[in-house]
Amino acid sequence: MADEIGIEEFLKVDIRAGTIVRAEPFPEARKPAIKLWVDFGPDLGEKKTSAQITAHYAPEDLPGRQVIAVTNFPPRQIGPFMSEVLVLGLSDATGDIVLLGPDKAVPNGERMH
Prior knowledge:
By secondary structure, the chain is mostly beta strands. It has a single domain, classed as CATH 2.40.50.140. Helix content is 8%, strand content 37%. The chain is built from 2 helices and 9 strands; from the N terminus they run αββαβββββββ. The strands form 3 sheets. The chain has a 5-stranded antiparallel β-sheet, with no helix packed on it. A two-stranded antiparallel sheet has the order 5-6. It is globular and about 40 Å long.
């Protein structure tokens, strides 16, 4: 179990919904990954990230899918690619990542609360 945090600490994490608009293979990554471009609406715009989700997803199947991401981490260089957000997921029984997303459509950029 993780350490307890206060609501103030939790509210510092900016978790938002976005729609994947583009996805490409990322063969240069050390572990198999897919490059994603996610639309977070007019306030945040389009952000890019890399996700190790190749066990369950193919790049051509991802555009149009809504995901949940942390949008206020600093950018991180992953090989030749700059990741600007962290798309959230959970491990399945074999350790492969399953993306988190809303079960009904929400506006891009909608903040979790």
